[in-house]
Design goal:
The chain has 10 helices and 20 strands. It is α/β, with parallel strands linked by helices. It is globular, with a radius of gyration of 21 Å.
């Protein structure tokens, strides 16, 4: 099969790139996924859009995250108009709560640097915190409120992106595992599966935690992406108890509009094993109970895990490889795949169009892993 743009990986990153390319006028787009589109780490995420709650400093990565977050309100409106699906963006903000002296010091330090950086953040007393969220533990010392850190229903986002593809003739091939990229001279010309070839003018590698398993010709990709398991549990109430995402230093709870409360998440280097463990369920339950003791009365009604794609420096890998034409990389988003999807799509579309005026920091380039001596080796 011959196509204009071939996107390998049908998670939130790959599907967002497909939509962005279509919006820019590309009409031959194919997405390949080794299983079912959007049912790996994108489906397992909690949907938080929280660059400030998770940032330890400003800089290029924070700017990337906040710029992408700011795209979400328009994206939600556009997807509703394009597909009729509401991705349920929730702009109530995020609370970060402290329960110990060490927690309080950590939050005070974060408050000081974010205020100096001109970011929107408020420091709330214990009383103000309980007034904002009455079900938070009475042991709370203080909290930070981030009005511009939001959440989105990630599974509805995936459903909207898949519907956009269907409506607009973007071809999706599920259960189609790519074994290698085809390379002629210095160009990638498409991809091979066990029983088919897909030719393309441009190829995008967006295979998340599985990126290091793909070969370019006979050589491995020149960077390492490691799977990091994250487990989440889910409880349910008759009505929504919390208005906002609530972080502590030990985890978070995410309230959904339908009464579900997600609690996450673990960080486990356990290879490609996706099992949910009893230890994780217990630890996440205890973390949630610390934030809101009343949750102790609720049973865990669901649990799941996903494999986040992690590069050695924790940064996403975005852009082209030196010495290899017609291939663009979009992987290693780690904990920020949902958050970074809209901006990643624009960055990759700009790269495919050759628009160097819109380049982002070289700290995200795949070439940062190249050996200066060989030009094609993993650090």
């Amino acid at each position: 099969m011959d196509t204009g743009v071939l996107i390998i990986g049908g998670g939130v990153i790959g599907l967002s790139i497909a939509r962005e390319m279509h919006l820019r006028g590309v009409r031959r787009i194919t997405v390949l996924d080794k299983s079912v589109c959007g049912e790996e780490s994108s489906w397992a995420a909690a949907g938080m859009l929280g660059p400030q709650a998770e940032a330890d400093e400003t800089g290029a990565f924070y700017d990337l995250c906040s710029e992408s977050r700011d795209l979400y309100p328009a994206l939600a409106d556009d997807l509703l108009a394009e597909t009729g699906l509401d991705i349920e963006i929730d702009r109530q903000g995020t609370l970060y709560v402290a329960f110990t002296d060490d927690d309080a010091k950590h939050l005070n330090d974060r408050y000081e640097w974010q205020k100096k950086a001109g970011l929107a953040v408020e420091c709330l007393t214990a009383e103000e915190t309980r007034r904002a969220e009455p079900f938070v533990s009475p042991d709370v010392r203080l909290s930070l409120f981030f009005p511009n850190d939001w959440q989105v229903e990630n599974r509805k986002l995936l459903a909207a992106l898949k519907r956009y593809s269907k409506i607009n003739g973007i071809r999706i091939h599920e259960n189609t595992a790519v074994e290698s990229l085809m390379k002629e001279g210095g160009k990638v010309t498409g991809a091979k599966t066990a029983d088919a070839t897909f030719l393309a003018s441009k190829t995008v590698l967006a295979t998340g935690a599985w990126s290091s398993l793909i070969k370019i010709g006979d050589a491995p990709v020149p960077f390492a992406v490691t799977p990091v398991r994250g487990q989440i549990i889910c409880m349910r109430t008759a009505k929504r108890l919390f208005e906002r995402v609530i972080y502590s230093r030990r985890g978070y709870i995410v309230p959904r509009a339908d009464g579900r409360i997600l609690a996450g998440s673990t960080t486990e280097f356990s290879g490609f094993t996706k099992a949910v463990t009893g230890t994780a369920v217990a630890d996440l339950s205890n973390m949630a109970f610390e934030i809101a003791p009343s949750l102790d009365r609720l049973p865990v009604v669901d649990s799941w895990s996903g494999l986040r794609p992690y590069a050695a420096d924790g940064m996403p890998i975005l852009g082209s490889l030196d010495g290899i034409e017609d291939l663009v990389i979009a992987t290693a988003h780690y904990r920020n795949g949902i958050l970074l999807a809209p901006l990643t799509a624009k960055i990759i579309a700009d790269e495919i169009a050759g628009d160097s005026s819109k380049r982002h920091s070289d700290m995200f380039s795949p070439n940062r892993f190249h050996s200066a001596a060989t030009g094609f080796a993993v650090k």
